[in-house]
């Protein structure tokens, strides 16, 4: 009998996209299959953690022993995250929509003779879920993702500081072989001292397992276990 490293610890993971309604038939969203977040949830269970997966709309089965909360919008996702705090580790993998329509039309917006030129949609900023959780007094160990198409490490380091994270995972989404709907991924983990660990191209399941091991060892180090 061996006790796993995260036995008795709560890990909260966000995954998938959020959808922001425009009217009853239309919405704004981001590219995200949810695969990476779901793979990480599975890996966290393997480390012995109690895992809560807060997911936007995706077509993936819930991994065994994972508690899943389904949400649609960024605002819903934030409320769900706050409802399961405090936690020991928070991993934000979700591709949250940065903006939402200022008003959600009650009826389907119709094409009118006076909007032949187009339609102007007013958007407002969504809350930053990760930054909000990382600013709590009882903040968990916080891990973010930075999907970038250029200046990967530079932007990742900026986000690490701006959102007050413990770790950030940088991935280059300009490469069609990795990221988004792909089954493979290649990432670089960056810590607060800007040490980097590269995980080479492999399946999201393998990357998730290795990444969860790294997150766990950083977490245990920082909490003096
Ligand atoms: O700033 P950017 O959206 O690139 O940051 C990405 C990281 O922040 C991801 O970990 C993502 O899940 C998280 N995020 C969030 N809430 C937002 C925007 C991003 O939790 N509104």
Strand order of the largest sheet: 5-4-1-6-9-10-11-12
CATH topology: Rossmann fold
Largest sheet: 8 strands, mixed
CATH-level-4 superfamily name: CoaB-like
Percentage of β-strand residues? 25-35%
The quaternary structure here is single chain
DSSP strand tally: 12
Helix content percent band: 25-40%
CATH architecture: 3-Layer(aba) Sandwich
Uncertain segments are none
| Total of domains | 1
Q: Which CATH top level class fits?
A: Alpha Beta
Average per-residue pLDDT, rounded, comes to 92
What is the global morphology?
globular
What ligands are attached or bound here?
cytidine-5'-monophosphate
**Alpha-beta content class:** alpha/beta
Give the SSE map.
Layout: E1 10-15, E2 20-23, E3 26-28, H1 35-46, E4 50-55, E5 66-70, H2 74-83, E6 89-92, E7 99-101, E8 123-125, H3 129-134, E9 141-148, H4 152-162, E10 167-172, E11 184-191, E12 196-203, H5 204-222
Parallel strand pairs: 1-4, 1-6, 4-5, 6-9, 9-10
Antiparallel strand pairs: 2-3, 7-8, 10-11, 11-12
Helix pairs in contact: 1-5
The structure holds cytidine-5'-monophosphate.
């Amino acid at each position: 009998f061996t006790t796993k490293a995260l036995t008795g610890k709560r890990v909260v993971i966000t995954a998938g996209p959020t959808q922001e309604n425009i009217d009853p038939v239309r919405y704004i969203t981001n590219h995200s299959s949810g695969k990476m977040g779901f793979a990480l949830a599975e890996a966290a269970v393997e480390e012995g953690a109690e895992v809560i997966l807060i997911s936007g709309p995706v077509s993936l089965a819930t991994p065994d022993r994972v508690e899943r909360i389904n949400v649609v919008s960024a605002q819903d996702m934030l409320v769900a995250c706050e409802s399961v705090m405090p936690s020991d580790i928070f991993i934000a993998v979700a591709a949250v929509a940065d903006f939402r329509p200022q008003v959600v039309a009650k009826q389907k917006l119709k094409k009118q003779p006076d909007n032949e030129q187009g339609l102007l949609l007013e958007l407002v900023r969504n809350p930053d879920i990760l930054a909000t959780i990382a600013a709590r007094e009882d903040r968990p160990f916080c891990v973010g993702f930075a999907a970038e198409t250029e200046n990967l490490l530079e932007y990742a380091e900026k986000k690490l500081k701006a959102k007050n994270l413990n770790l950030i995972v940088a991935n280059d989404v300009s490469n069609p072989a990795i990221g988004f709907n792909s089954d493979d991924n290649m990432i670089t983990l960056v810590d607060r001292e800007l040490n980097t660990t590269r995980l080479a191209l492999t399946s999201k399941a393998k990357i998730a397992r290795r990444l969860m091991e790294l997150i766990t060892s950083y977490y245990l180090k920082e909490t003096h276990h």
